[in-house]
Amino acid sequence: MASRGHFSSRLGFILAAAGSAVGLGNIWGFPTKVAENGGAAFILMYLGMAFLLAYPVLMAELIIGRAKRANMIDALKSISGNVFGTITGSVGAITVVLILAFYAIVAGWMMSYLVDAFLSILTVDVPWLIESSTPRNLVFMAVFLIFTSVVVTGGVSAGIERWSVRLMPTLFLLIIALIIYVSTQDGAIDGWKALLVPDISRVFSPTLMLDAMGQAFFSMSLGVGTMLVYGSYIQKQENLPKLGASVALVDIGVAILAGMLIIPAMYVALHNGVSILDEGGNLISGPTLIFQVLPSLFDSIGYVGTIVASAFFLLMVIAALTSSISMLEVPVAFLVDNKGVARKKATLILTAVVFAASATIVLNFNALFGVVITVTTEYSQPLLGLILCIFAGWIWNRNEILEELKHGDEHADKTLFWKIWPWYVKIFCPAFIAINFYFSVF
């Protein structure tokens, strides 16, 4: 088992796992949901849902991973003892490949805007970089996948951990520096009010609760095996509940920091004459926010705006990369564990597979891009999270789970975590995920 590699330090794991959870969705999805759902009222509900729903599922993945010391397919097969585990793990691996396929395209856009912003500092203008085109999308998607594969090829400690402990602190420094800068601009105070002043009437709104539940679940990269695989690289003496809580807190912290950056920036843009509302009167979010509203804001600032734009898109590329390396690791771990393929060869094979899937989406963009996102994130991911709860709560022997927890804490059976979590993940989490899935779909 030693040949599988492991995280050499607690901090290395926390930063790698938090990096997996911290992605583009945190930075462009969370802030606008905050603004649309009552400001601080949404934040409070999100905090509650993060620990009521996402943390227990995160712990299920980490415990399964470390106990079985295997990829998602082999780990779930070991627990179920039949084809159900193999099918579930396989669906998870396929889902994560498809997520990475569309994610690499979006991350490629971030890279192209980063290059454009950097060239703008040098007063070099290359319009091709920010004009949507098939060649641009293919080129930068491929470049991003190359960066991802280089990190994963290095293995757990020399690749994933080594880069995570560099990229995550850089991400924090960039986002804090940008918050400070944006907060000094005219109009920022209105954004801070939208962020921090709670609309109490919205606290128990069904829409707010569902949005908070979905954001908490998806923001922690759950359901597709990334945390399970990372869990398989944790050393036995580590206290898993504490490690999981640390990952959840870092992820929540980045999401809130993103809100502290994006929402004031949107109101600064409004003050500078940039529209921040769509045709329906809602705050603009997603790609339109990142690739139209904020670039317009940077342009309105002048030369300093090009420097700010460079920092912002570097932040976005780092957030994308820390997530993509964990996604690629899921199928790579299967080839290494199950098929005995050398890590470098496995990484190259899976990178080629993801590139082929991404290229297919790029060449059939209008027909496939939205469909792939919907199928993977709105259907497959929550259902996989639900099934993981069933594995941890109903199929796996409780005594085995307790023995695994005792490796890191010999008194685990006397902790509050053990008194609550087994029943919670067995009944409460599946019910909540099922309700959220029903309302999000129907």
From TrEMBL:
This is Sodium-dependent transporter. One of its GO terms (cellular component) is membrane. The keyword Signal does not apply. CDD domains: SLC6sbd_Tyt1-Like (cd10336). Its main location: membrane. It comes from Agaribacter marinus. PROSITE patterns: NA_NEUROTRAN_SYMP_3 (PS50267). InterPro entries: Na/ntran_symport, SNS_sf, YocR/YhdH-like. It is found in: Membrane. The chain crosses the membrane at residues 12-31, 43-64, 84-110, 138-160, 167-184, 212-231, 243-270, 303-336, 348-373, 379-396, 416-439. It holds the Pfam family SNF. The keyword Transmembrane applies. Keywords: Membrane, Transmembrane, Transmembrane helix, Transport. It is a multi-pass membrane protein.
